[in-house]
Design a protein that fits this description.
Length: 73
Amino acid sequence: MPVINVEDLTDKDKALMEVNQLKVEVKLERWLTSKCCEEIKDYIQALVDEDTLVKGISEEKNPFKEKGGCVIC
């Protein structure tokens, strides 16, 4: 998709672009925020046992574990 410099467009071209964008947006299915939040919460709770951020990484599978200790001389 080519890059369009909006500053170079006429007012008519800008209005046409805005109308086209609004036509696209009006066709989108809209959901209630409360319903979306409930679904996201259920999804997160269903996968909490597999979530690395919640349970952490086991030492044998951690690619970033230190191989040796730090020694200060």
